[in-house]
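Help! Submission page says 'invalid entity' but I think these are all valid:
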Amino acid sequence: MANLSTVYMGMKLKSPFIVGSCSLTSDMDSLRKAETAGAGAVVIKSLFEEQLQAEAVRLENALSAYENMIAEALSFHPAYAHAGPSEHLHWIEKARKELSIPIIASLNAVSPGRWTDYATQLVDAGADALELNFFGIITDPQVSGQDALRAMIATAREIKTKVTVPVAVKLTPFILSPGYVVAGLDATGVDGLVLFNRFARFDIDIATESVRYQMALTSSRDMEHSLRWVSLLHDRTQADICGSSGIHTLDDVIKMILAGAGSVQLVSALYQHGMNYLSDLHTGLDEWMNRKGYDSIQDFQGRVSRSRSGQPFVFERHQYIKALLGIQ
Ligand SMILES: Cc1cc2nc3c(=O)[nH]c(=O)nc-3n(C[C@H](O)[C@H](O)[C@H](O)COP(=O)(O)O)c2cc1C
């Protein structure tokens, strides 16, 4: 039996499989099944900044300014209208009591400010770590991409100074220069990076002539962007990298670890196959490692990363040029 333990955010996990933030982690039965099936950790569904803002906004009777953000939040969190921050804290407490694996609380962090005090309450409720889900669309033409990234880094820094538990940042895939952003985040001392998040799908309902947000499930085809950046960033950040988006099959998991991830988050695959699928992946990974003669995850983590290639330029450009020119 190979050793499937790994390190994420400086925490030792018994396996590299993490149940990503979604509605499955707001159900105790699913959480218990995840633990039994071998999950190394679970990320509880996000507490959205808008849930906190909405309380204040309701008081001011000015909800309209937040309509778009709330619609997006609702697509993730159908019970949002009723679930407030205190219910969320209670849920973290309950999950902590029931499970023995690490519980990661997730905050949908858009801007720095007073609301970040809430991070400490999540930790007081029992969260072993925090994941900051920087998920927001910048619609204000006065705000540049650079401003938005600075705000994100400032929020991460603020939260890092407030809590003693490890903090990870779940990045949006829509960043032109992830290496630059990761260097900025490194300076804040964040402990983990989740590459990448996935946006709710924007659509229009032609019957009601209204906007419709949907959280569509992914397939393995959606993994490529994350795989590329995991392999480009491995060994170039002090934070532990967790692969996310489009990880479905055993091959997907192995590729992510070869690229440099020490752990992977799964959501869509678990919606499609159920929590017991984790145990199949566990067995499959163990068999593959035995066949290959690997005793531990660290034995093959990052073997196909830019930093191990010895020829970074070739690694970054050659494949691209080869593909474009059709050279064999
Ligand atoms: C129904 C559903 C709810 C989700 N809720 C959250 C959430 O609350 N916070 C978050 O950061 N991501 C949320 N996500 C995104 C997932 O955590 C994950 O990043 C995304 O589904 C891509 O991973 P996958 O390909 O394994 O599905 C949600 C996804 C789904 C399908």
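Support: the input was valid. A stray whitespace character was the problem, and the output above is from the cleaned input. The first strand starts at residue 6 and ends at 8.
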